[in-house]
Design brief:
About 15% of the residues are buried. The chain is globular and about 50 Å long. A two-stranded parallel ribbon has the order 1-2. With about 100 residues, the protein is mainly alpha-helical. The protein has helices spanning about 10-25, 50-65, and strands at about 35-40, 70. It has two helices and two strands; from the N terminus they run αβαβ.
């Protein structure tokens, strides 16, 4: 089991997969060794809407491609006890998205 948090302002999509690849190589883990993926899918105060979606979509895509379960947190802020068969993990954004609002 390994864990990595990424901070990449305004370039999450460009840095996430290379960061995952680097982490796996440093731990000598092959993609075929992965048996499940857990993703933080509930926004925290500092989490942006786009960053949350990018992380969740990446976890879902990797899980689907590798044929492994993906687990997130439930809406009650409790982690799933056991990942189910492949199921889509949804991002849970706890505040109004600030998308398309004019900047003044």
């Amino acid at each position: 089991m390994t864990r990595k948090e990424f901070e990449a302002k305004h370039s999450q999509a460009e840095k996430l997969l290379p960061g995952i690849e680097k982490m796996l190589k440093s731990k000598k883990i092959k993609l075929s060794d992965i048996s499940g993926i857990e993703v933080a899918n509930i926004s925290r105060e500092e989490t942006g809407f786009t960053a949350l979606r990018i992380g969740v979509v990446t976890a879902n895509a990797l899980g689907y491609a590798l044929g492994v379960p993906v687990a997130g947190e439930t809406k009650k802020n409790k982690k799933q006890k056991k990942p189910l068969e492949f199921d889509i993990v949804e991002p849970i954004y706890n505040k109004e998205p600030n998308i398309g609002k004019p900047v003044h």
